[in-house]
Amino acid sequence: MFDAIILAGGAARRLQGADKPALQIGGLSLLERALDAVAGAAHTVVVGPTRTSARSVTWRREEPVGGGPVAALAAGIGAVGEDVVVVLAADQPDIAPAVPVLLAALTGSGDVACLVDPDGRVNYLAAAWRTSALRVALTARGDPNGVPLRALIAGTDMIPVRDPDGWGRDCDTWDDVADARRRAGSERPEGEIR
Known about the structure:
Blueprint: E1 3-7, E2 24-25, E3 28-29, H1 30-37, E4 44-47, E5 58-60, H2 69-77, E6 84-89, H3 98-105, E7 112-116, E8 122-130, H4 131-141, H5 149-153, E9 158-162, H6 174-184
Parallel strand pairs: 1-4, 1-6, 4-5, 7-9
Antiparallel strand pairs: 2-3, 6-8, 7-8
């Protein structure tokens, strides 16, 4: 069993402030795609503005709003109880196949398993954590406002998980969104402002 925390806040500056989690890819919003990826979770927490969802989730907001991903994790961690928590950003439309791989990587020793792309970049928001290790890391950082994710991982026993298929690609720009829609065989929904 595992729990999940989905980070669905952020300003989407490179998308001119668009409601990124609501963007449609292949007939589903980015948020719903992330929620589908963790459908096996015992409990799912979404940190971001409350919105309509077909799934049962707990909603939280980071303090202060806009305080960054570590502040968002700090807001969500109190609502999980399983020994393992999957942490995902809501803007990774192809992430579903990575979840079981991340969970499998964490069955041995280690504090956190993170996707690593072919260029060696660690995706801190495509991870499976031992919940106790995440709590310790958050406590050790003190005030989470503005803390970079790489600082949260520092000092942990991280297990790198290769991502040769691009599961962790995110949608930070309109070109990223267009690429994700091409992969999903979909177009921009009517009425969506770009």
